[in-house]
């Protein structure tokens, strides 16, 4: 690279760094108006609109718009869990999962129901809870007319139709549709 080219690149880098530090955002998305201080950030953002996913997992061929997301996904295949809870040593693949887990120790419940005031550790638990207020039951049994708020409840119900009893008493081999029923039953053995 010639000396004038090097000076130009250095000057361009300095300008870009100055924009980043000052918060000046010269690169604007023509579709939604969001602005960025660096062209690369705008280019990554544009993938939201184009649907482009240039990064592919070599193991399962799932595609990602960002390299960081691919790297994080690959941990599913490698089993790597780089994030560790300092309270109990439990390890996690994703930082977000560690943050959610840490609320068990802190007792923090940042998600609040506006209708009844009940609080939840996870946003998905609040979302499921809200269905109780709306009466929404999106999970429908294909065998009968019953509907459920949660997918897990539907799966549990479907065992009635299939006859599958996955929960086995450790003392007498008796089997149950529901885990809760098996645990109640096991108390019989403890009382003896």
Automatic annotation (TrEMBL):
Annotated GO MF terms? sequence-specific DNA binding; zinc ion binding
Report the GO terms under cellular component: chromosome; nucleus
Residue ranges of every copy of the C2H2-type domain listed in the record: 27-54, 55-82, 83-110, 111-138, 139-166, 167-192
Region of interest: Disordered = 1-27
According to UniProt, the name of this protein is C2H2-type domain-containing protein
Q: Enumerate the UniProt keywords alphabetically.
A: DNA-binding, Metal-binding, Nucleus, Repeat, Zinc, Zinc-finger
Query: What's this protein's family per the entry?
Result: Belongs to the krueppel C2H2-type zinc-finger protein family.
The record's subcellular location field reads: Nucleus
Q: Which residues, by range, are in coiled-coil regions?
A: none
This protein's superkingdom? Eukaryota
Q: Does the keyword Iron apply?
A: no
Q: Does the keyword Ligase apply?
A: no
**GO BP term (any one):** positive regulation of DNA-templated transcription
The record's annotation in InterPro entries points to: Znf_C2H2_sf, Znf_C2H2_type
Lineage start? Eukaryota, Metazoa, Chordata, Craniata, Vertebrata
